[in-house]
Amino acid sequence: MILQTPVEIASFPAKIKHHQRILLMGSCFAENIAEKLNNSKFITTCNPFGVVYNPISLLNCFEILKNQKLFTENDLFFENGVWKSFEHHSSFSKVDKNDTLQNINNDIVNASSFLKKTDDVFITLGTSWIYEHIEKGFVVSNCHKVPSSNFNRKLLTVDETFLSLQKIVEIIKEINNNVQIIFTVSPIRHLKDGLHKNNVSKAILFAALNHLQNYNSEIYYFPAYEILIDELRDYRFYADDMLHPSKMAIEYIWNMFYNTFFDKETIEAIKKIEDIRIAMLHKPFFPKSKDYKTFKEKNYVSVCKLSQKYPDIDFNIEKDFFKIC
């Protein structure tokens, strides 16, 4: 008896290898996948502007990377003793203005350079709702809890969303024509306005992405939303807030993810890397014991063998960890 609704996932034509570079941008679900990729020793850059939810703000981010626009004091605002940017997550906000600008501009320069050499771009869309700053006249990525009276809140149309996504693809291809572009819709629901408006917002994203794929057959869609909402239709797959996916759900989606994008050899490497990572997390009761020394020697040999088998993967951290001085 099958107690699930299996989600069919289209075959991904060009499998991703460890030597490839991966840029991930969008909602916090992009960061969930980026963490998994990093643990599996892929070369990644994730959210150089912090979490970004809507297509207009994502387009602004890619335009900044294309032009490698560096921020100045005029691009910041000062509130509650902290310098902030409406185009960045609060993690970039600092008490010192120069620290804020340095963090912002370093990530722009690094991400702009990374995009020119990247092989795969994953974009996770979160919502069709946007907030336009009334005085400044542009759509913000983050409101930073500034009073709502400063913004016009609007739901994008399907056409507006499609045009933003199409422009993002054009910018990426202009910078790097060899890149593979993968879109997904975040399975995290935005319930501030209720389930109906959340569903309307997600539906606009789906419709625009469908239009984009009809317009450009090279665009790939990974059904993260459908996996959680349809295949994992149970609240045990949600965190305590009943909105975000639980660790179990993230593991499940990650398993679907790597079976879609990686070949057998890469999956084998990922599993061996995970074994080594688990061994590194082991906390011995007696660090100076003979048993622990043997444990480290055994894992050091395993790491050296992996390093020889997978020369594209850097195992220096693991070698240093297990090496007996």
Structure description:
It is a single chain. With 325 residues, the chain is α/β, with parallel strands linked by helices. It has helices at residues 28-39, 55-67, 97-117, 158-175, 195-215, 224-231, 247-261, 264-280, 290-309, 316-322, and strands at residues 21-26, 43-46, 77-79, 82-84, 120-125, 129-133, 151-155, 180-185, 220-221. It has a 5-stranded parallel β-sheet, with helices on both faces. Helix 4 (158-175) packs across helix 5 and helix 9 packs antiparallel against helix 10. The radius of gyration is 22 Å and the shape is globular. The model has no long low-confidence stretch (mean pLDDT 93).
Mean pLDDT: 93
Order of helices and strands: EHEHEEHEEEHEHEHHHHH
Q: What is the CATH H-level superfamily of the largest domain?
A: SGNH hydrolase
Q: How would a textbook summarize the main sheet?
A: 5 strands, parallel
Distance between the termini: 55 Å
Secondary structure category: alpha/beta
| Number of DSSP E strands | 9
Number of H- or I-type helical stretches: 10
What is the CATH topology assignment of the largest domain? Rossmann fold
How many separate domains?
2
Binned strand content: 5-15%
Shape: globular
Taking all Cα atoms into account, the compactness measure Rg is: 22 Å
CATH C-level name of the largest domain: Alpha Beta
Strand order of the largest sheet: 2-1-5-8-9
Short description:
This protein has 325 residues and is of the alpha/beta class. The chain has helices at residues 28-39, 55-67, 97-117, 158-175, 195-215, 224-231, 247-261, 264-280, 290-309, 316-322; strands at residues 21-26, 43-46, 77-79, 82-84, 120-125, 129-133, 151-155, 180-185, 220-221.
